[in-house]
Structure formats: C-alpha cells, structure tokens
Amino acid sequence: MSGRADKVLFREGDHVNKGQVLVQLNTDFIDKELMRIQSMIDLTQAKLDHKKKDLARYQQLLEQQATSATAYDQLFYSVAEIKAQKAAYIAELESTQIKKDKSVILAPFNGRVLEKNIDIGNWATTGSPIARIGALSDIFIQVPTSETLLPFSTIGQQVDVWLPATNQHLKGVHKGFRPVVDAQTKNIFSRIQLEQITHPFENMSAEVSLATNSESEQLLVPRDALVTFNGQNFIYSIKEGKSAIIPIEIVSFSGDRAAIKSPHIQAGMPIVIEGNERLRPDQPVTVIED
User: Fold this and answer.
1) Which of 10, 83, 103, 193 lies 20 to 30 Å (CA to CA) from residue 61?
2) Where are the alpha helices (DSSP H) in the chain?
3) Threshold 0.70, pTM exceeds
4) pLDDT digits (tens, 9 = 90+) for 186-210
5) From its phi and psi, is residue 131 left (phi > 0), alpha (psi between -120 and 50) or beta?
6) Where are the domains of the chain?
7) How far apart are CA 251 and CA 260, in angstroms?
8) Strands, E, within 158-218: which ranges?
9) For the domain with range 219-278, which CATH number is right: 3.10.450.50, 2.40.420.20, 3.90.550.10, 2.60.40.10?
10) Residues 118-154: tens digit of each pLDDT
11) How far apart are CA 97 and CA 107, in angstroms?
C-alpha cells in the first residue's frame, strides 16, 4: 500500500521484535471510504428488511390466491438482488479494511535496524524499502580459509569467535563453505553462525579460531603464563625454589588458554602466571599462592 508516513517509530541501530509497529501510514482517505461503504451496507440492510416484510405479506396473499405468482416472483428476486448487493458491499468493506491494516507496517522478524529509509511526511510506495533489518538469529561470519585447511574443518564443530568492535568472546558453529574457491588467493570461505550476539554491526571484523591440523592432545596453559623475548616464547616453572625458563612452541589458542609443545614440560608442573614478566632465569622465587 502507498501513503504518507504519519508515524515512524524506529531509528537506525534499534532492536525490533517481530510484529512491532515500524511505520503508520496516513489513512484519512481510507477511513472516509470505510464510512461510505458502511453507510451503503446500512442503507441496503434497511431496504432488505423492508422488502422481506413485503415478501412475507405477498407469500400470504399468494396462498390466499389474492395476488399473482408473477408479482410474488418479482418481489422474491428483488430481495435476492438486494442480498447480493449487500454481500458486494461487505466484500468491498473487507477489502478496504485490509488496505487499512496494511497501512501499519510491522517488523517481519526479530532483528536490528541497519538502515532507515523513511521519515515522517515521506511518501511510501508499494515495493519501496522503508528499512533494512538484520536478523539476530541468522548472523554468519564469512572466514577466508586456505583450501589446504579444508580437510581439518568439520561442519557442525563449535569454534571460538572474538569480535574486536564489541570485545565479545562468543561461540560459533561451522555451517559449511561457499562452493567457490577464490581464483587468486585460493581461499575458500567458511560460514560460521553465531549462536548469541548483542549489538552487531554490519561488516564488522571477527577473529575465528579454526582447526589447522588433525585432532591431537596438547598441553594447555593460561595465556598469562606466556613470555616472549627476542621472538622466542617461554614459560617459567619453579625448580628447587628458583625460576626455570622453558622454551615452548605455541600450537594454538582457545579462549584464555594456549596449547603448547615442549619436551621439557609435563602435565602438573608448576608454572608462573603472575609476575613472570619480571623474572629472570634461576631467580629465587617464593610461592605465595598456588
């Protein structure tokens, strides 16, 4: 339906719910049309009531042979014609009411308004967009991934996602790939669906942790335990009351933990996670909290 916007009840960035009123178009003309049709229905009903009484009287006269069958038939079909006319007016009323209902534009689903294309007083036409809304339940990240990593990606796998713009750490689900490999980079796009997200921004960046090797057991340490010096990664352990620096290889990250490799580390070894940036090898260490 086309019409002038009398009310615009949303702004860019708003969260809207399915069925929420977004725009109310002017209905002055439709309201007058509804009144006119309703008046015609009332007038037709009055005519119908009058003709029905006449028909009942003619029925008695016909039974008493005080009138002709022709006169009765004329009145009978007159009543039928008025009934049909009333039905047509009722259909017209319903059609016009549907037009009025369409003057209230509702949000089609839960989402966030990405773009607003209408203001109060603007003329809205059938088919012209008043807004662009992103569904919060259907948000995907497209991750360019080397085609060589395709064997290690599992559809349905949960992955860690970090959104720098909002500093949110979320869980995503691997939903598959776009069936096209980029001709120049040889990247394939993984499609990661976010399960829960608040305040999304269109085209925002994201960091996604994807498998780059076959599944294997790794030692996990808190990220705070990592120390970098001259491009080499280390952690500090404690041996005989002194700090022991151990070179490591970082395999991957998962949340606030890092998977590491080192032939000098075993599960259960004590490691330093606070104050390690100030330690030096073989420095005496006093443990104040495990």
Assistant:
1) 83
2) 28-63, 69-101
3) no
4) 899 999 998 767 778 888 888 888 8
5) beta
6) 1-26+108-135, 27-102, 140-208, 219-278
7) 5
8) 158-163, 168-181, 187-194, 207-208
9) 2.40.420.20
10) 999 999 998 899 999 988 888 888 889 888 887 877 8
11) 20
